[in-house]
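Customer ticket, subject: "Can you confirm the structure for ABC transporter permease?"

Message body: Hello, I'm evaluating your service for our small team and ran a test protein. I'd like someone to confirm that this is what the system normally returns, since I don't have a reference to compare against.
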Amino acid sequence: MSYKTNSLKHLALQKFKKNFWGVFSFGFVVFVGIISVFAYVFAPDSSQHANQMHLAIHSKKPGFKITMLTIPSELKIEQNVFDKIFFGTKSTDTEIPVSDYETNDGNLIYTEYASDGLKGVEKTISLSRFPNQSIDDFVKEKTFLFGTDKYGRDLLSRILVGARISFFIGFVAVFISLILGVFMGSIAGYFGGKADAVIMWVINVTWSIPTLLLVIAITLALGKGFWQVFIAVGLTMWVEVARVVRGQVISVKEQQYVTAARALGFGDFRIIVKHILPNIMAPVIVISAANFASAILIESGLSFLGIGAQPPMASWGAMIKDHYNYIILGKPYLALIPGLCIMSLVMAFMLIGNALRDALDVKN
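Agent reply: Thanks for trying us out. I re-ran your input and got the following:
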């Protein structure tokens, strides 16, 4: 029996490997996952939430270059390496875009950058603010590969850090939906009767409410925030899992192996967990992949409406909200880049779901 099970798993894995788009999408999702976890390592702006603002260089095109002067702060913040890697650098240094600078009589004289051909303000600062180092160590040319947003923040860094919310909301929401959906669906399908009637009534009522409105209501009840959105999205997606599990349990609970388990005196909990659920997880896995994509879209919609991740946190949906009007102002990339990121990640999960459906289909 063990050999049979292993051979079926091996066969499904081989069928999945033959699906080019499924394997490609899986690799893309893994890539985005690595970027999400180590976003601050890859981001040019490693400050918390990639929130280093330079209003003088707002809305610049991709590839924009500027000379950046960093003025060290007298306030030092102790931060360990782990905190820097996963939560960003807490920096109190001041970054100033400059068009020209020179040193004279122990002072640094610099001209702040001004766009549209204007001349910036000329300022002077003592070189004592830069102890024991050359001034050239604090003046570097900075390139914004994706340009800057309307606040002068590095768009590439915001994209990388914003991937964390869109990626992890899929895992958290699907995890919550699986726990609730599998539990409720198993109870309804296995025991039937009044338990089934009550659970199906709850499922139908929940299903009748538009998903976005239900998420908004739950978010407002729990409060605006990072984890509140994750929980709210997860609490609205369990009904689909519950209906699938209920139908699968009803179809297999009269099978011979379940009847044999009852005859051996096994309890209902053991029969459900050890015998029924392992044999019905194929469609649940497929619907979970689709729920990943749905969770990303719902979170993006919430952030666009302003009730998702709150500023200064980076979120792809919030980035579209901040810049959608730039589409008609000649700078559509500010909204299109995060939009393409959402589209590509959602498409990857949908293709993975299709590949899993084909691989787990015993009729093929």
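A couple of notes from the result: The chain has two domains: 2-34+156-360, 65-152. DSSP finds 13 helices and five strands in the chain. Feel free to reply with more questions.
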